Structure formats: C-alpha cells, structure tokens
Structures
1.
Amino acid sequence: MRYHQETEFDIEKAAKFLELPPSRLSEIIEKGNLRQNWDEYNSIYRFEGHAPQLEDGTVLIDKHGSFELVRGFPKIKRAMLLEPALKKNFNDIDSVVVEEKMNGYNVRVVDYRGQLIAFTRSGHVCPYSTERVQNFLKRDFFMDHPDIVVYGEMAGPDNPYVQKKVYGIESLDFFVFDMRYKNTGEPLNVGQRRKLSEEYGFNQVRLLGEFNVPQASEKIMEIIRELGEKGHEGVVIKDPEMVLQPIKYTCSQSNCSDLEQAFRFYNEAGRDYLFSRVVREGFQSYEWSESEEEFRERCRRLGESILSPMKGTITQVQSGERISDDFRIRVSEENVIYRFKAYLERFGLYVIIGTPERIGEDYSVEIRKINKSTNDKTLAMLEGQLWS
Amino acid sequence: MRYHQETEFDIEKAAKFLELPPSRLSEIIEKGNLRQNWDEYNSIYRFEGHAPQLEDGTVLIDKHGSFELVRGFPKIKRAMLLEPALKKNFNDIDSVVVEEKMNGYNVRVVDYRGQLIAFTRSGHVCPYSTERVQNFLKRDFFMDHPDIVVYGEMAGPDNPYVQKKVYGIESLDFFVFDMRYKNTGEPLNVGQRRKLSEEYGFNQVRLLGEFNVPQASEKIMEIIRELGEKGHEGVVIKDPEMVLQPIKYTCSQSNCSDLEQAFRFYNEAGRDYLFSRVVREGFQSYEWSESEEEFRERCRRLGESILSPMKGTITQVQSGERISDDFRIRVSEENVIYRFKAYLERFGLYVIIGTPERIGEDYSVEIRKINKSTNDKTLAMLEGQLWS
C-alpha cells in the first residue's frame, strides 16, 4: 500500500470548487465538519453534520490540487400509507419503476488512484468493503466512466452489519441500485443505469415491474406480501427518469426482523429505532384491510420481535455467558482482517477476532462485537438492582 | 378567596431555613429553579429542576417570614426482576409489607391558611384536586398533626390524567399511601400511618399482606396475577419501618394499558415511555415461567396495545373527526371548572370545555384536550406525505 502524506489542501482552491467563501470553508473545517480520512486515504475528506447543500456522508477528494465530490446517497423518504403517498408524490408522471430494496449496507464505489474504493454511508473508507468490491466490480467501467459513482447494497451472510441468508448469497455480494455523476450528484435514469450495469456485468437489485401510477399501490402491496413471506426487506419506488424523489416501503416482517436483531441488545437499541418501526406497523395495519386473525398475527409478530430476543439475552447472561454481536467476514488478504478490526475500534467498538480459517483461496474469520451496556444492565437486574 | 400580595420573601431567612448560603439561594431563584405559584397561592414556591438534597416538586411555603417545606414525593424505584430485587434490597429485614399501587395521580395535601390544598407531583397547586380533597379528607387531622403531609392517589373515572373504572369508584376518591413530616420528609412507619388514617376515617390503599422476605416474591407474583386480571396497576413493597426504600412492581396488563392510552396520540407518545414499558415486559416474560401459549398471549397483548389505538386514531382522522383526550371532572363550585381550565392552559394545553351538567349538588363537565401533533401527522400521512 502506498501512503500519501500531502494532507493539507489549498483552502482557496477547495472553497472555489465548492462554491463557498473561503471563510465559510475554514469555519466548517474548524468545527470538525470536514474530516480527513486516516491511513492511506488521507487526501479524502468527509463532510460530517450539515454541510450546505451536500448530502450527509459526502466526500471531497483532493487530487493534487484539483477536487472531486462523491456525493452522499440521498436519504429516501418512506411511505407510511402507500396509496396516498404514490398519488401525491408521482402525480405528474404516468408510471413508476419498482426495484427491490435489499437488506444489507449501502456502499459507494469510485476509482481512487488506480484501485476501487468503497465508502460507507457516512463517507468512511471501509477496508472490508474496499477489498471485497474488487471482486464484485470490474475496473473497466470506472475507466470508461470516470465521472460516475456506483451506489449499491452489500448483502449476504458475511456481513458486518446485516447478515441475511434470504438472498441465496454464499458469502457477500454487491447489487447496484443507483449511479450518479460526481460533483453534482445527478442520477442516471433507471434505464441507463440498468443498461450500463448489464453491459459491465454488474449485479443489480431486482427490477420488480413498471406500473401505471393508479394501479401501482395494489401491485406493490402484492409484491410486498410476497417479499415479506420470503424475509426480504421491501421496495424502492422510482420515477423512471429519476427526476422525482424515490420512495421506500417495507414489509412488516422486515420491520420486525430489525427489531428482533436490535432487541438482543435492548439497552443499546435506540428509542427512535423502536418507535419508528412500531409506527410503520400501525400505518400498515390500517391500510391493509386485514382480517381480525391477520391483525392478531401482526400484533403477536410485533410483540414477539421485541420480547423474544430480550428473553434470550437475559437467559444467556443468567447462564454466565456474555452476549455479543457475532458475524463472519471473508477476505483474500489476511491483513484486511486486522485493518477492519482497527477500523471498527476507531468507532469505539470493542471487538474480538477469532482464528482465520482457509476457505479455498480466502480467509474466513469470526468477529464478535461486545455490547457492554446490555450485558452490564442485564447482569445488574439479575443481581437485583432496580431499574431507576 | 383571599389574595395575599406579600410575594417577596426574605432571602436571608429562607436561606438559613434551607441551610444554604444566601448566594446559592439567589442563584437558584435567578435560574428560575424556585418559582412562585400564581393566583391566591403566591406565598408558595416550588423547586424545579435539581434543588440540592430536595426531591423534585418540593414546595417552600412562606408563612409571614417563617418557612415550611413540603417535600416532593420520593421517586420509587422499580424492580425488573422481582426475586433478585427483593433479596438484594430487603436483605437486612425479616418481612416486607405489600400495598396496592393504584393507578391515578399522586397528590400531596397540607393545610394552608385554614383550608386544605393539594399539590401535584411537580408542586403545582391543582384547583380541581384542591376542591375535591375537601370532601375526601377532614381538616381535624391536619389541625391535630400540623407537621404531617398526607400523600395519596386520586383515582376514579372523573380524572384529568388516568380514568379508571376498575376500582368501583363513582367519580373520584383519594387513597392515602404515605405520610411524611414537613421539612425533613421523614416518613411515618407503615403501622403508624395506617392506624392514623383509620382513626381519621381516610381511605387508604389496600394492604395486601406482610410476607417474610424469602417467600415474598412468590406471594407477590400471585398478587400481581390477580391484580392484572382485574386491570389494576401493581404493588409497592415496603420496609414496615420505612427505613429502606420502597420498590414498585406492576402488572403486564397495566403496562399495556398505559401504552394503549398513550398510542392513541402516537406522535405525542414519548419514545422513552414506549421503551421502558417494552423492557418491563421483556424482564417479566423472562422471570415468570410462562408456557409457550402464555408467552404468545403476552406478545399479542403488547403488540395490540400499540397497534390497536394507532389504527383507531388513523381511522378516526380519516373519517374527518379530530382525536382528543376526553375526560370529565365533577366539582361543587362551578367556578372551579374555569380555574382548572386556566390551570391546564398555563401548561400550554389546548382544552375545550363542555356544558356543565348538574348531578345532585355537583357539576359534571367534559373537558377535551386537543392533541395537535398526532392529528396533524395523521392527516399529513393520509394526504400522502412521506414520513421523513
């Protein structure tokens, strides 16, 4: 790996590129809202907090005095009630494209000094995703289209964030769902993006159909029912031209599966995380004309998704074990394991690495994230402490 | 009603009484952490936020230059796991007294210039509770024991906060659960308090038993099961001498009933309110060796307590109605209705008062609290807006 030491960029030039007064840019830097990446990626800077006009996680790359922006993936808003949301938001177009929303983690890929690199949603260069993406995407696309950023989902069981076996992926894979131009963040339309992906042999998220707006909600409900039964997450509904903002909508089973994962670590689970998922269930149960039996089943599913993992955690801690969030990663170069560990530790996580095993040419290793807060709280309750 | 205008107290004297340096007291006043009551109670001041050594809601009364403290009711901590909590916290005593925790609102009563007044938990003089308490408690107790503050639960259907019919109360009643000395906040022991209450004909919370500590958790679980089935709230477990801190423990049905009430106004419902109730269910479901069927029923109950009221709200707003929190109060003097309305409005609530009806000697009136946030959010979703 090469290390580049030119860490200071020219504020005047950068400000001009960003169309900001230099004093404003200096202020952003002083507040810590534009941070330099560590290690070999030190000519990469990420915006944190609210940068003017820029999506969260937007990245500024200093290319020896000229600059490039890799825009953060724009937050996709959620329909609570499908039918009115479609009518209101896609009123001006004839049809919408429905693509699958996969349950993994969101990654952006660009070519950086002759090698692909993968940014997480927050704009960090993830060593694991970066190593993996070399196998998933070919560089020729990025050489032919140096002005395009590829956005996709890293999905599959060997996943540091969301381990899903439902996609039939053996280890991990990358599915393109968006392409946008550097600097402006302008998206390619759905047709162009799917065509380019196909040409270059990229995996893509599934295209589930194109529907006339008046019929779309009924069709999407059918799709959501099927996806839900298979344990998939949901859909993103798009203007084919990508002019209007896309909308997401998810399955009840996926909401509940999120809660089930989160509530093993109940004391770390965000209050807002719980609240938002509960509210989605409320709106879905209103919109879907459910039988009494289906409604009871939804209630039970929601309750169980919270109580069952908590009960499991208490039982486990009582038995003397400590709970942890365990996952595996698979890499070609062993040193990526240790770089990924260091990366997680920078976020304040406490991780334990297992012994790497050979699987063909690769190394597979177990990583355990220890959730101190839930362990400590559970132990305290078991020892008879009071809640508050 | 008499109005007293001597609103300024002597800081030197008050500081000496509170055992604080005068500069510290001045600082507390400047920060707005010691606030004068409005209306005729302007020689009453309440501590807001953290006052040194004083419970939240503690009240300072200026009696023409001498002072008196009516201490706030101390927060009772909650057992998450009954058995270990009892063992740890009551390790040093032989037996515990179990009293019913009723579901109403917490009120403190003292004699003030020849009339009983009722403070809410936060130390406000509540005009409704003050008027009502004249019927519930006789003044002779307060004349015989001017140094004692009576703490109790205002329960029953004619209730601005928690309307419960499960106690068989026609309108509203007051149930003593604590007596403490002014200034120090020292409690009377359980026996003294129950005896005094009986002597003066006060209603008391039910005494459910006194149990040896090793057997207590089993007994209390039985009690909780019975209370739960009847829709009652739970118990407070006390050291008979009131030296060790009491502990509370509640029924699953009561947790769920809280959620059911809160989630009609889902957008006003506190995230912490939801989280804490959900966590209680998790611990209870662990500790109570439930059958699979009982666990399913608990999950369903929890889910339904959230989804059912939400569904109701969306349906109601969709039909063109607006949701509101409706309750009735019953008073002897009609002007109390308007004073209570003004009182609620001081807290920023928007309330609509119905037409008072005569019931015997009393007036009964409906009060509607309008919850703008949930109405607006629900309407927005029905109109197709996106969540965020």
2.
Amino acid sequence: MMNIGIDMMGGDYAPLEAVKGLVRFLSTQHSNVLIHCIGNEVELQPLFQEHGIDTSKIKLVHAADTIGYHEHPTKALKEKTQSSIAIGFHLLASGKIDAFISAGNTGAMLVGAMFSIKPIEGVLRPTISSIIPKLNGETGLLLDVGLNADCKPEQMNQFAILGKIYAQQILQIPQPKVALMNVGEEEGKGNILAQATYPLLKENTHIHFVGNIEGRDIFNDKADVVVCDGFTGNILLKMAESVYDLTQQRGIQDEYFNRFHYENYGGTPVLGVAKPVIIGHGISGAKAFSNMIALACKMVERDICGKIAEEIRL
Amino acid sequence: MMNIGIDMMGGDYAPLEAVKGLVRFLSTQHSNVLIHCIGNEVELQPLFQEHGIDTSKIKLVHAADTIGYHEHPTKALKEKTQSSIAIGFHLLASGKIDAFISAGNTGAMLVGAMFSIKPIEGVLRPTISSIIPKLNGETGLLLDVGLNADCKPEQMNQFAILGKIYAQQILQIPQPKVALMNVGEEEGKGNILAQATYPLLKENTHIHFVGNIEGRDIFNDKADVVVCDGFTGNILLKMAESVYDLTQQRGIQDEYFNRFHYENYGGTPVLGVAKPVIIGHGISGAKAFSNMIALACKMVERDICGKIAEEIRL
C-alpha cells in the first residue's frame, strides 16, 4: 500500500479544488493507494460529505493551522508546527507517508524539502523541472526552472542526470536526448556558464548528450531533456505558460496549445531530495490536484528517489 | 537627402528578395532618400530591369565579392575588401552613407559595427534589441538579445538608457516603462547579476524604472523596455519567434500571433555604435528588407545615435 500525503489547504482555491481533485483521482482505479488528507477537519468533513467521498478510502489528518502565501518560509515552518505543510513534512520524514504534495507556500515547500527531507547523498543541488509540450505530441523536460538562479557547471551536469532519470521513469522515454540550452549550436557558444558546462555534459557517460539547442528548438524533437540555469529556465517556463494565456485571450482553441496549460502537468517535483515532494501551482484546480496525486503515485511506484541515489553514486 | 546603404547580396534569398524589398520600399513616398545598393552589378542590373526599378532613384555600388555565412567574420572582413559588407562599412565610416543594412554574415556585421564604426564614447557595450508584440496592440522592446552573453550590472543599466531612447524615438512611446527581466517581482529576487542590476536601475534618473517583471509579463503592458543579459534575451527571442512557427504549423491564422513573424520588425539595429547599423535575419524576404530600409531612415531622421551620445554624456 502506497501512502500519499496531500495538503488540502494549500493553493488559492483550496480546500474546495483539492477536494474536487481528490474526487477526480479516486474515480479512477487506485486500489493500492491511501491518500492522507492533511487539513482542517472542520472545513474538510462537510466538503467530503458534500462531494460524496468514501472516507474509508482516505485518511483525514487534522491540521489546525496553515502557512499563508506571504509568510516567511523558514520562520513559518519552524513556528507553525500544526500547519498542514509542517505536518506533511513530519509525516514524510517519519515514513508515515511516501510522498507529499502541496500547492501552498512554495518557499515553505522548498525549505521543507531541503531541510526536513534533505538532498540525496552526492546530489550537489536539488532542482525543479517542467514538462515541455512538444509539437510532435511527445513531452520533454526543462530543468532547472527556478530553484537555482545561479548555477555551477557541475550542478548543471547533475541536473542532466536527474532529468534523464525522470524522463525515463515518468515520461517513459527509454534513452532521452539531453541538450544544453544555449545561444548557438556549436560547441564554444554561450555565456561563461554554458561554455564551461558543455564539456562536462559531453564527457558525462550517464547521459545521451546531443549538444546545444537554441530557444527555437524547445518545442521540436531535437531534445527530450533540456538543461539550463534556474534563472533562464524560470523565465522561459513563465513565458511558455503565458503563451497559453495569449491563445485563450485570442479565442484560439487548439489541442497543441492547450497542452501549455499548467493543469496538465499539475505540479513540479523537487528532484534530488530523498523523498518525493511535489509543489503545486498556487492557482491549482481540481485537474491539477488530481494530476499531482497521480504523479506522486508514479514517483513512488518507480522509486525515482532510489534510482537517483543509485545513479549519483556511480 | 538621406543616404541609406543596403547590402543586396546578404541573406539566404538575396539578391532577389532584396530587389523585391527595394521595389516595395520605393513604391511608398521617400523623396528625400537615396538608396545605395551594394552588390554585384552583373547580377543586380538584370534584376533591376526585370522589376522595373527606376535606376535614377537609386545608386548601384558594385561589389565584386561577398562574405559567406560560414566565413570567419574578422578574417573575411579584413581580407575581402571588395565584399558588399566591407564596402558598406567603408561607405558608412567615410560618411558617404548615413546607415548600413545587411542580412548577410551576422558576425561580420557585428565586427564591422564595433571596429569600423566603433561604440559611442561612454557606451560600455553596444547591444542588439528586439521588438515585442504586446497583446494590447502596442510594441515593446527587449534587450540585449545576444550581443553580450555575459553582462555586468553597469552594462545592463546602460542598455536601459539605449532601449529607452529607441522606444521613444522609434516606437514613439513618450515615457517608456523600463523593467528588469527577473524570476520574481520583489527587489532582491534573481541571480547575482539581476540582484546587482536592480539598485542601479532604481537609481537611474534617465529612465522610468518600474521594477522586475517575470517571463509571463513580456507580452502584457507592465513594461515597454525589458532589460536582460544577452544569453537570456537571445533564448527568449528565439523561443518567441518559434511561437509564430508553432501557430503556422497548427494552421492558426491570428492577427496577434502574426506579429511574432520576424518580417514585421525586419532587422535588429546595433544600438550604441556611432552610426546606424541594421542586421537582418538570414531568411529575410521582401517585406523584411523593405522594413529594414524604413527603419534605417527613421534612425537617421531622428538622429538616434546623436541622442544616445548626448544622453550617455549626461
């Protein structure tokens, strides 16, 4: 039995959308999963009843408190021991749950992941990634997308390995093509960081490195895993998300551009920490919550963290 | 009388598309402009005849040679003195023309701009910019988009001034809102470079600084001039250009997304050098060539270089 913990109070539309997401997830077959719903029971119980949730299939974990969006992450996590996020990390650290999901205070989620769960031994810097909808129908991965605004070449070189494992195990790409995001195709192009990272990736025997790609290649099939620093990646990701909004505002309904909607990927796993932690978008709706639970299950099932630990040791 | 020089041999579809662009430009009223068409007269004369160009309205400057795409910029420019690009820079440096345009070897254009024309006194690093199509119908400016892969805060702070002048004079925005591209809105966010640049922009009395913007804000009305390092800017620009290609491949015809097509902005001026130099896209077609000539005229008319020199001195 897998135990997945979810913060029911995190996100702009929580707990209602979290409950709806739970309904959505439970409507599919997941006989081997127990969802630990962490949140205020006074608010949650009537919602569970209203939405016809069979409470024998879940476990309600009461959390009297929540961490707000503008609270200082470290301080809030330390002082609000009864908050849904603090309880989630306590359950995850103590092994009562196998993965933890929240769409609440991103900073608190990162602090919890780094300090209460901790990086896998040998991992220089954990990273967060994002799905890339490719024009050919496939899905790529971009990382880092914001956890590490300044990177070192050695860290970027490891992101490539973390991304490869994720692409193999979750996106089911047997031998992912790994590329470096850059301003030109030839070796030697780029800023100092990209120039110094290229030779490391070229020598990296864990990955199938295909060289540099440019901004125009993100959505084509040149690469499956695209490595960049978190500053560049975060700006790219947010710009890509805004393309979806632009199509909506222009009244365009298109199957491909609809894949740019954040709800489809749900949340961002923190890769490189010892247990699965998934951070949701603040504006997560039912579909996003449901997809995050499904992603958490996959990450536990495929033992992503174990596989990362193994490959980093090599 | 304005004298605009154009390399008729530069670009994948030259000289044919350059000639068509010339026809397009000449069909509008420009009585005070003399176009110096630099290229191989054996190839150009029959094309001029075929496309009905009144050769009294232009000046054909013979260039026996061309610089190819894969030639080494510095070496080619030095050795191929009879190439269209070398002749163009010679004419520009000696004052025979007031602006020079080419869609040929980008490296050679940059080398020519930097070494034969030279930066304006006080300009730390010249920069290249790109137009941003905003959803509200207006046009913004992103810079640097690739000339400076690694930047210093002082250089970024100057890009803001160059961008402001261009936005005022060419995009006709009286008081452009200038923003720093970053990963979050609050001061203190970002990588080391962005963190160090923010206070300089805040203190910069030449500009109306509105703070940080994120990747999702590029196409909205938060800012008119967006400053970033050339690595980030180049990747963003190429990704934005690819969005146009995506819409085309999805069969979407939309007035707004059509503005993402490079032909609409034509070429990229090198800002901060002593005379107007415009670099065209390798795949420039007639519309792009025509728009580049129009842009060159505007830059001369409004004396962009003089205004930059004046403001940098202050």
